[in-house]
């Protein structure tokens, strides 16, 4: 039994020795064959390179045509350039509004030159109606008036005619001065280059737009009050039909307040475009609740900076 065990052990050892010998022999052959393969591959590559060189040199120079030159692409305008321009002029909204005050003043001065005689039509209608009431009042006095009241009524009618005529001819006189044209003649003299001169020109133009607008806004309230007062006073001495006419004239006295004057409209429209430069911005933010310590909750923030 022991002899059989030793025989199996010896045969196993002999088998392992044979396998290891065969493996070592195979590794030796592969190592010996590797340098030869490298030399052959290098020779093949060198032959290919020489062949391509020969082929290239054998090609005539006339057969090779130069490729057409491709013009360089123009660099695209960066999308952030407009933002940089905006940030540069952020402190001067007078230079950002479109149209600028100087351009608006130039355009409206041309319109003023053509249509100066009717641009204040609410004042004209109110004044003409008050004049008409004062002229027709003496034919519409009430029958139960005393002689003293008739004299007061005639005085009131005279005042109504004077008020209406004053507003009519005064408005025509103001319009004939053409304040836009006078201002544009002064503004266009400041035509120097540079941001300082541009800013000066725009601010002078804004002042030229503001002055007549402010004047006509004040005159609108004065006109409405004076024409209404004249119509109410004269209407107290008139009969029923005359009172209806006086009430109509009193309603027409509010026309300058209902319809913005042409100068007021132009200036308000300029301010509207100027405010639109800084439009409202809505953003989502997180705020902490003071009563809850570090507890945060989402909020919508509406920012309007001007």
Rg, nearest Å: 49 Å
Question: What can be said about the biggest beta sheet?
Answer: 2 strands, antiparallel
Oligomeric state, counting identical vs distinct chains: single chain
Task: Give, in spatial order, the strands making up the sheet with the most strands.
Answer: 1-2
SSE string: HHHHHHHHHHEE
Let me know the average pLDDT: 78
Annotation keywords:
single chain; 306 residues; mainly alpha; 2 strands; elongated
Mind explaining what this structure looks like?
The protein is mainly alpha-helical and 306 residues long. It has a domain at 98-280. It is built from ten helices and two strands, in the order ααααααααααββ. The protein has helices at residues 2-58, 81-88, 101-115, 121-136, 147-176, 179-187, 195-235, 240-252, 255-258, 262-275; strands spanning 281-288, 296-303. The protein has a two-stranded antiparallel sheet with strand order 1-2. The protein is elongated.
Quick structural overview:
The chain has 10 helices and 2 strands; from the N terminus they run ααααααααααββ. The chain is mostly helical and 306 residues long.
């Amino acid at each position: 039994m022991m002899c059989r065990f030793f025989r199996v052990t010896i045969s196993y050892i002999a088998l392992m020795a044979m396998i290891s010998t065969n493996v070592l022999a195979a590794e030796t052959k592969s190592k010996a064959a590797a340098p030869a393969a490298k030399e052959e591959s290098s020779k093949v590559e060198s032959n290919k390179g020489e062949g391509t060189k020969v082929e290239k040199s054998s090609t005539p120079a006339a057969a090779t045509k130069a490729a057409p030159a491709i013009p360089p692409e123009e660099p695209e305008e960066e999308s952030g350039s407009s933002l940089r321009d905006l940030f540069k002029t952020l402190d001067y909204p007078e230079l950002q509004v479109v149209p600028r005050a100087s351009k608006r003043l130039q355009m409206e001065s041309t319109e003023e030159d053509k249509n100066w005689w009717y641009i204040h039509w609410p004042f004209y209608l109110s004044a003409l109606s008050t004049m008409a009431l004062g002229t027709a009042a003496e034919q519409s006095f009430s029958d139960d008036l005393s002689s003293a009241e008739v004299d007061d009524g005639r005085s009131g009618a005279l005042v109504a005619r004077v008020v209406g005529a004053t507003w009519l001819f005064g408005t025509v006189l103001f319009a004939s001065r053409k304040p836009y044209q006078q201002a544009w003649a002064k503004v266009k003299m400041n035509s120097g280059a540079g941001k300082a001169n541009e800013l000066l020109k725009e601010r002078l133009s804004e002042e030229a737009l503001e002055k007549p607008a402010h004047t006509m806004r004040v005159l609108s309230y004065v006109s409405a009050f004076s024409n209404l007062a004249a119509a109410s006073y004269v209407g107290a001495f008139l009969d029923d039909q005359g009172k209806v006419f006086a009430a109509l004239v009193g309603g027409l006295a509010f026309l300058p307040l209902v319809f913005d004057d042409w100068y007021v409209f132009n200036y308000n429209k300029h301010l509207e475009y100027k405010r639109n430069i800084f439009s409202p911005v809505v953003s989502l933010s997180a705020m902490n609740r003071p009563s809850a310590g570090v507890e945060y909750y989402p909020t919508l923030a509406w920012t309007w900076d001007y």
